[in-house]
Design brief:
The protein is built from 14 helices and 27 strands. It is of the alpha+beta class and 711 residues long.
Length: 711
């Protein structure tokens, strides 16, 4: 057993801070104190388990911390007695965690953290026998976790730097190390977390998705807070991920902020908020928008998040951190006044467009990257080659490169599947080839053992001024035996939210290409001859037409493929257990899937237009796909109505349609502005918008330009 020593001080607290906090409990900290007091009263009305349940017991850790903080702030004996009631339950269990990796995983990390804080906060006010029992249990569990981390270095969470288990377990180990005075434990955690701080993506994006962002990222902040307090080491500026990650989370909020974009493993669309994390990010990085969102969630969404979230232990136990991390000096800033409505996160290949920050806006989120994102994919391979390790552990990252989702007017129209254990590209809005998705799929960790060249990316990115454009290159993700030479999806969104998706593919042999569109509710077929869309007179032109409705939201879906296409609609059921620590927990989602399949061919060209509308006040489709003599070698041109047009070049990089002549990969027109991508020359309706002065190899421009002004 590692020798331990009594701590010399309380973690995160000293006499001066305690005096300050106490003086503010009926002032600016009154809401935070009310939350803490209510949470402690919830513990009073709940009985901790007498025997270790099969399910997770992570909640025992923050229960001890909340009650101990309430006692230290007030001196009221009942909080001390209640804290011991919960602590004694954890102390009585021979092991922490029963169903999966007892003593060596999330239960151990959570409980070590919470009980170690309580140990230092309660101090000598615990009776000697109780204090010694708690100290001995912390020493035993700390030793077990430390030994596991050392023995498994290079595998699983011990060295999985981009994974929440790593952050939670090492933070628990650090906390008990500081509490008991064990430098070996704190130095182990410091070395591991130092690597995390340096290798997480600087743009703040999280390959695990919003739910695990909400679950895991607070532990990064917790560790940095402890490190600063215990050692005076400030890593806040060093961690560029934490400095930017709030904006990743903000842009993955569905319109109205209450729900989330559920790329990656997401139990549901509500498990996305952490008031405590917003508070400390606001404080450390002076992010007024984080303070605003914390206020908004606390006032409007908190209890729905608490009781509808599928993630446990959830937001309620974070009361202690909400109080300690609140900084009244940071003024709240409404994102609608300060944050652009389009964003790009290069590491994850994530592009986000919303028509505004209003609750009824239309949102599109589109992504494409290697497993884990570019930084994790490249860095893990370098570390693994240098050390013989296996560090990526991207099991929460889905085979979804090239996929997108769309919400409008408070409802979801095109969706992801949420959580899955056997992950498949077919659960996403993607393209199947001969009915198959990505190589390595059908298991939990799709990217395990993948060769270095099995990658996807996002190029030709423009995300500004109400426009979005990106080209996802995903051909390498498919099994080699399919002979996919290329598969690219270009997605553009205009200021109105109208969206155009162009899929181009080529294979060594003729293949069956199937475009998938998933929704929460069945799509309805649109009868031919009904003038719903402005495409000719409704005659059969080979296009597949559907309409989606969900509450107030609606969208016309029109897909036209070279050579025509057949369409059918099927039910796709996805069932998963999101945590091995609770085997009985099952989440399910039913998707209603439209499958659009052109005739078998070596080549694919399919154009899908999505036109959102108000289902309570429906308007007809106005999109019109302009004819092209050879759609496999020429541009795609779509007149969308309302002064919006989209022109996407073919393989030759030129556009000549609908009044636009250009050398460019894309020209998107809305009123008196044009978004151009990879352009060297643009002429719109006879006006030169971008001139190359005869130099065909001139510098490419990607920007939003006013029409009629020479650039």
């Amino acid at each position: 057993m590692t020798e331990t020593f009594a701590p010399t001080r309380m973690l995160l607290l000293d006499d001066a801070r305690l005096a300050d906090l106490r003086s503010r409990l009926d002032g600016d900290l009154a809401p935070q104190w009310r939350r803490l007091a209510e949470q402690c009263d919830l513990y009073r009305r709940t009985t901790p388990p007498a025997e270790h349940p099969l399910a997770s017991i992570t909640y025992l850790g923050p229960a001890a911390a909340n009650l101990a903080l309430a006692y230290r702030l007030t001196g009221q004996r009942h909080y001390l007695d209640e804290a011991w009631r919960w602590i004694s339950a954890a102390v009585s269990f021979d092991h922490w965690g029963r169903a999966h990796l007892p003593d060596h995983d999330l239960d151990a990390g959570w409980i070590l953290h919470g009980l170690s804080l309580a140990y230092t906060w309660l101090g000598e006010d615990l009776e000697p026998e109780r204090r010694e029992a708690l100290r001995a249990k912390l020493a035993l569990q700390g030793e077990r976790l430390f030994d596991f981390a050392v023995a498994n270095e290079g595998s699983w969470w011990s060295s999985s730097f981009w994974q929440n288990h790593h952050w939670i377990c090492h933070t628990g180990l650090a906390t008990v190390g500081y509490a008991l005075g064990v430098p070996a434990w704190t130095e182990r955690a410091k070395a591991a977390m130092g690597t995390v701080v340096d290798v997480l993506p600087a743009d703040g994006s999280d390959m695990e998705g919003v739910v695990y962002w909400r679950y895991g990222v607070p532990w990064l902040a917790t560790y940095l807070d402890l490190l600063h307090d215990a050692e005076g080491v400030d890593w806040w500026d060093r961690c560029r991920f934490l400095a930017r990650t709030f904006f990743y989370r903000l842009h993955q909020a569905a319109p109205g902020y209450e729900e989330i974009v559920d790329h990656g493993d997401c139990h549901d669309r509500r498990s996305g908020h952490s008031v405590a994390l917003y508070r400390i990010l606001a404080s450390r990085y002076r992010i007024g928008e984080a303070q605003w969102l914390a206020d908004t969630v606390a006032e409007r969404f908190f209890w729905r998040e608490a009781y509808e979230s599928g993630v446990r232990p959830g937001v309620l136990p974070e009361a202690w951190a909400e109080l300690l991390w609140y900084d009244a000096s940071v003024a709240p800033v409404d994102p609608a006044t300060s944050v652009p409505a389009q964003a790009a996160f290069e590491d994850l290949g994530l592009l986000v467009h919303r028509t505004s920050w209003d609750d009824d806006a239309t949102l599109v989120s589109f992504k494409s990257s290697p497993g884990g994102g570019h930084t994790a994919w490249d860095t893990s391979r370098r570390l693994d080659a240098e050390r013989g390790w296996d560090t990526l552990s991207a099991g929460h990252h889905h085979p979804d490169a090239g996929s997108f989702v769309l919400a409008s007017r408070g409802a979801w129209l095109l969706v992801d599947e949420g959580y899955s254990n056997r992950k498949r590209a077919g659960h996403h809005n993607l393209v199947l080839v001969d009915g198959q998705g990505f190589a390595g799929e059908g298991r939990y960790h799709v990217y395990a053992d993948a060769p270095p060249d099995r990658t996807a990316d996002m190029v030709d990115v423009l995300a500004e001024g109400g426009f979005l454009h990106g080209r996802a290159r995903t051909g390498r993700m498919y099994p080699a035996e399919l002979g996919v030479e290329s598969l690219e999806r270009t997605l553009v969104v205009l200021p109105s939210g109208r969206t155009v998706v162009v899929d181009r593919g080529r294979a060594a042999e003729p293949r069956e290409w199937t475009v998938l569109l998933h929704a929460d509710h069945p799509a309805e077929a649109v009868e031919l001859g009904v003038p719903h869309d402005g495409v000719g007179d409704g005659a059969d032109d080979g296009a597949v037409r559907r309409v989606l409705r969900n509450g107030r939201a609606g969208a016309w879906l029109t897909t036209r493929a070279a050579g025509g296409a057949r369409a059918d609609q099927v039910v796709t059921d996805v069932e998963a257990n999101p945590t091995s620590s609770t085997p009985s927990l099952v989440v399910t989602r039913r998707l209603h899937t439209v499958r659009v399949t052109p005739p078998v061919s070596r080549d694919l060209l399919a154009v899908t237009v999505v036109e959102p509308f108000d289902a309570f006040r429906p308007t007809p489709s106005t999109a019109r796909l302009l004819p092209a003599e050879d759609p496999l070698t020429t541009e795609v041109a779509v007149e969308l109505g309302g002064g919006e047009r989209a022109y996407l070049a073919g393989p030759d990089g030129t556009i000549d349609a609908g009044g636009v002549r250009a050398r460019a990969r894309a020209v998107l027109v809305a009123g008196d502005r044009a978004a151009v991508v990879g352009a060297t020359r643009i002429e719109i309706d006879g006006r030169i918008v971008l001139a190359d002065d005869g130099d065909a190899g001139g510098t490419e421009v990607t920007a939003v330009l006013p029409i009629g002004v020479r650039a």
